[in-house]
Amino acid sequence: MSQHSIYIHLPLSMYRKYREAVLAIPVGLELLVDHEVLVPEFRGEMKDIAAEIRERKIPCRFHAPFRNLYPAGHDPEAVDLARRRLQGALDLAPSFGVKQLVVHPAWDPRGDILDREAWLDRATAFWTSMLPSLEAAGASFVLENIFDLDPSLLVDLLARLPEDRFGFLFDTGHFHAFSEAGLNDWLSALGPRLQSIHIHDNGGQYDEHLALGQGSFPWGDLFELVGAQNRPLEWTLENRSVEDVIASLRFLGQSSGIAEFRHLAEIARPQAQKRP
Q1: Closest to 174 (Cα-Cα) out of 141, 142, 149
Q2: Which residues of the chain form beta strands (DSSP E)?
Q3: Which residue range forms the structural domain that includes residue 125?
Q4: Spatial separation of the C-alpha atoms in residues 273 and 229, rounded to whole Å
Q5: Tens digit of pLDDT for each residue in 193-221?
Q6: How many domains does the chain have?
Q7: HEC assignment per residue over 105-170
C-alpha cells in the first residue's frame, strides 16, 4: 500500500473544462463543492460526473463550501447557512465515494482574537452538531488552517472533537503567508491529528497558490519533518493552472525524496511536452 496519496484540487463546477488534462495524470481529485453546484440545475451533471469518477475508480475527496460561511458566527442565520451548505456536500459524498471533506473553521484572529473562548464554544457546538450527519455518511472532516497565527486554537478545538471524525489539514500557503509560529511548531502541536496537506507556494505575504518552488516556502524542512513522522498522508496540489500542477509535480519529483512523487513527475513530463 502506498504511504502517500496525491490529489489535485479542482472546483467541481470546472470538472468538464479541465477533465482531459487532469485525468491524463493518475492522481486523485479533491473536488470543491461550492454553492454554485449545490443547486437543482446542476443535479443532472453532478450525477453524470459522480458516475464517471466511480467507473474510473478515481480516488476522490471533497473540499466543502467555505465562501461567506461562518460556522462559529454570532448570527444564528449565518450559522444555519453554514450547516446547510456543509450538509449539502455531505449528502453528495456517498455518490462520489467520498469519505473525507476539507472544511474551514473560519477563525480570523484579526477580528476574533478578543472573542477566543466564546468562539471556541460556538465552534465546538457547531461541529459537534454535524456528528450525526458525518456518521450517516461514513465520513470525516479535516479542519484547515487559514489565517491562524499559531496552532493553538486548532489544537484546542480538535481536543474537543472526536478523533475518528475530525482531523487536521495543514495548508502550506496559508501557513507561509499568515502564521507567526514556525513549521516545526505546527507539525509538533498537531502532528497526531495531521491527515492531509495542501501544497502550494507564495512569497510569504499573500495566498498566491504558486507552483511549488516559485515562492519561498521551506519545502526541504517540510519533507524532513513529514518524513520523520513516517506515516501515510494525503497531499493535495492547490495550483490554479494545469501548467502549474505539472511544474509542481516536477518539483516534488526532484526535491521531496518521496517515491510516489518521483513517479508522477515522470508521467507529468510528457503531458507538459504536448502543450503548445
Answers
A1: 149
A2: 4-11, 28-32, 60-63, 100-103, 140-144, 166-171, 194-199, 233-237
A3: 4-274
A4: 36
A5: 999 999 999 999 999 999 999 999 999 99
A6: 1
A7: CCCCHHHHHHHHHHHHHHHHHHHHHCHHHHHHHCCEEEEECCCCCCCHHHHHHHHCCCCCCEEEEE
Helix, strand, coil percent values for the chain (each to nearest 5): 55, 15, 30
CB 201 within 8 A of CB 217: yes
- SS3 assignment, position 1: coil
Task: Burial-class residue 234 by CB neighbours within 10 Å (0-12, 13-18, 19+).
Answer: buried
By C-alpha distance, which of 169, 168, 190 is closest to 181? 190
Written as one letter, the residue type at 166 is F
Q: Tens digit of pLDDT for each residue in 40-56?
A: 999 999 999 999 999 99
Cα–Cα distances in angstroms (integers) from residue 72 to residues 38, 62, 135, 146, in the given order: 22, 21, 21, 15
DSSP state of 204: S
CATH number of residue 57's parent domain: 3.20.20.150
In sequence order, the 6+-apart residues with CB closer than 8 A to the CB of 81 are 69
Q: How many angstroms separate the first and last alpha carbons of the chain?
A: 37
Q: Which residue type, as a one-letter code, is found at position 1?
A: M
CA distance linking residue 2 with residue 210, whole number of Å:
27
